[in-house]
Recover the amino acids of this structure.
């Protein structure tokens, strides 16, 4: 049947199985199969993807196991993912979790993936002032040479924050030195800021080169 055929082709990585499990629970509404996939995620994710396993245990109400696994997480990026799961809860919990992510970043200033969930959260919530402070703070401690794409991602996020606040000159400054990277996000933000500053030729050149 359809489920059997799909199962034979299913990507076995826990993050991909989790996506499939949500799909079967939602659109396909195949609850038994979705529960089987969720349980697979729990069993396979715990060693390498503990934040996924913790999400699952919370989802099915196995709170004791969830708290036990949470207490075992010490790796900073996984700890950040765990904290990021709480950013959509009450304001008090979300603010506390955001502050803990920032403190983790202070301890490990070269790991962009620690602040990445918070960067995405601030983007989604349109909290551009907080996004500016977060990314500018990270960039003070890192260089393009040492951080590679993470430096480009952080610079692009900073440019977005400044652009959305109408600070186009600063937004352009944040990414104009990255135009040679050909990374779409950085080039797009450079073009958008150029356009707002009346530099139509420069904006067009970036988007057509």
């Amino acid at each position: 049947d359809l489920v059997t055929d799909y199962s034979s082709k299913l990507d076995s990585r826990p993050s991909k199985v989790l996506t499939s499990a949500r799909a079967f629970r939602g659109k396909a509404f195949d609850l038994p199969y979705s529960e089987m996939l969720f349980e697979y995620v729990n069993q396979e994710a715990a060693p390498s993807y503990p934040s996924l396993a913790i999400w699952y245990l919370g989802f099915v109400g196995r709170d004791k196991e969830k708290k036990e696994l949470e207490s075992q997480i010490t790796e900073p990026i996984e700890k950040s993912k765990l904290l990021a799961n709480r950013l959509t809860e009450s304001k008090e919990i979300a603010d506390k979790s955001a502050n803990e992510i920032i403190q983790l970043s202070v301890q490990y200033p070269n790991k962009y993936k620690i602040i990445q969930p918070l960067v995405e959260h601030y983007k989604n919530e349109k909290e551009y002032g907080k996004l500016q402070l977060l990314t500018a703070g990270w960039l003070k401690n890192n260089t393009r040479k040492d951080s590679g794409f993470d430096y480009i991602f952080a610079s692009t996020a900073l440019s977005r924050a400044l652009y959305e606040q109408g600070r186009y000159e600063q937004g352009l400054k944040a990414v104009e030195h990255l135009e040679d990277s050909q990374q779409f996000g950085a080039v797009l933000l450079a073009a958008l800021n150029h356009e707002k500053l009346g530099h139509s030729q420069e904006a067009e050149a970036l988007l057509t080169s």
Q: What stands out?
A: The radius of gyration is 20 Å. DSSP finds 14 helices and no strands in the chain. The chain has a mean pLDDT of 84.
